[in-house]
Amino acid sequence: MKQFILGVAISCVATTAVAQTYNTLWIPDTLRGTTFNLTVKDTMKQLRSGNQTITGGINNSFWGPTLFFNKGDTVHLNVKNKLNDSTTIHWHGMHLPAVMDGGPHQVIPPGTTWSPYWKVTNNAGTYWYHPHLHEMTLEHVSKGIGGFIIVRDPAEAALTLPRKYGVDDIPLVLTSRRYDNSNQFIVQNTAYGDYLLTNGTHSAQVSLPKQYVRLRILNAEIERGYNLGFSDNRTFYIIANDGGLLSAPVAVTRVKLMVGERVEILVNLSNDNVGTSVDLKAYNSNQTFGFPGGEAGTTGQFGSLLNNIDFTVLHINVAAQTASPVTALPSTLVSNTYWTNNDVTNSRTLTITGGTPGQPNNPFVFDNTPFVLSTINKTVTLNQVEKWTVKNSNIFGHTFHIHDVEFKIIERNGSAANVGAYEQGWKDVMFVPVNESVSFIAKFDDYADPLHPFMYHCHFSNHEDDGMMGQFVVTSLTSLPTNASEMKYTLYPNPTSGRLFVQAPVNTTVYYATVCNSAGKAVMMLPQPELNKGIDVSALAPGEYFIVFIDFATKTKTAVKFIRQ
Ligand code: C2O
Ligand code: CU
Ligand code: CU
Hints:
Layout lengths: L1 H15 L6 E2 L5 E2 L3 E11 L7 E6 L7 E5 L3 E9 L7 E3 L20 E2 L2 E3 L5 E6 L6 H7 L3 E6 L1 H4 L11 E11 L5 E2 L8 E4 L5 E6 L2 E8 L6 E5 L5 E6 L2 E9 L2 E3 L4 E7 L8 E7 L26 E10 L26 E8 L11 E2 L11 E4 L3 E8 L5 E5 L5 E5 L16 E4 L3 E8 L10 E5 L2 H5 L3 E7 L14 E5 L4 E5 L6 E8 L4 E6 L7 E2 L6 E9 L5 E8 L1
Parallel strand pairs: 1-15, 2-5, 3-6, 5-11, 8-37, 12-16, 15-23, 24-27, 26-33
Antiparallel strand pairs: 3-4, 6-8, 6-9, 7-10, 10-11, 12-13, 12-14, 16-21, 17-20, 17-22, 18-19, 18-21, 22-23, 24-25, 27-31, 28-30, 28-32, 29-31, 32-33, 34-35, 35-38, 36-37, 36-39, 39-40
The chain binds CU-O-CU linkage (C2O) and copper (II) ion (2 copies).
């Protein structure tokens, strides 16, 4: 089988060496400010020659805009679902209230706008957003629905780093797809695509200036891992993990990037001549078993034309230097204080089970317990510093992700020395290879909510959909307000401003407000609405509506009618 793969690789080289053609790398457009309008939709894109491919996108025909957040700002997101299907949008890596998190419980029906908001407290870094509907994540993510979030903060701004988006600061989202004969994606029973898409571009090339360049790389695959490096084996520098900048750059010639992970790297092009090129490549051949995408074979559920080979991720053409280029590597970055074993107030262990070979109905799960939407698997007390150990003496590697927090990987197989230099920063995803147990420490602060849970799961969307997921609530010991006042809400529609003002009962905090049309269909979903600003109903067609309010303390639902004139 290996010889067969080699044969394919050689024939590719033979046919393409004559004239390799590249397509210009698509750079996602950007949205800035504090209010972000996102429309999730079914669409089509000319991804390669032949038919267009049915895709999904956000304001785009594949993938979505890059959202720029400033740490400290309160951001408002309006997510309109124009799919013919319910979905959710999760803000991967963001620290926020569970009810704003966009996990499997925050379902947005078709035609509905969901409006979460939160204060950005994450460090400057590269985050992302993507669908998370239970059992539908693989399908919705595979369509191409997702996008980058770039957080800026003063600590990052104080450093001399490349940050001209699309010029010397380039987002790269890596994923691959398999196509049928009419150019449509094959999603089911396909862990690995056959053709790489770099920012939705096949055989992508980009011109980058002759200076230090920053690449923000996200693995948005179903399962495939990437062992990244450059075609001339040059040294490059890791400056950030999932949750922001490291204390200092880490020099490497290869870095592994598993599903859900982000890494920011600096690569020095100052010594390259204008007009020359260098390739960013995946050196995925000859990985140890359990590296996702190392499997032999080119077809079937676990085979792929890209498996167990080295392949180009991005062809880089060196161009002239820009004005005020970054030409030196900072020696230090930010000062991070990480959690240690001494800080831990509670410990937990999760064991990867299931996945017995030859038993297709025995998917991978945690602790022999498949995910059930109505079961809360863990309860974390607010402000605890917890150590979680994920044990994998099972049959394959997985990427573990947890919502709500950024964590510090503290040990691999019980030893801090086994934690790679490239993964020393804040993380929200960690690779758990077969025959390893990996421990992290995180603090679960700020947001308690006994009703809405956060998720932890394998970030392979096929595994997640099959139940390799669990959920936890963060609870606060401080008692909730108990006085259930008379549930009387008064509405004051203001036709001129298009806003609806709400007088809530005394001592009531509204946990959720849902605006429904007269047929009872949800048209707006407003977690913890800021009632002092009123509710913007200007986009609603004239007619009769209801708002269903859920009170925080009692979870009592109250429906109130109003007329949109
Ligand atoms: Cu990126 Cu729970 O997901
Ligand atoms: Cu997440
Ligand atoms: Cu998995």
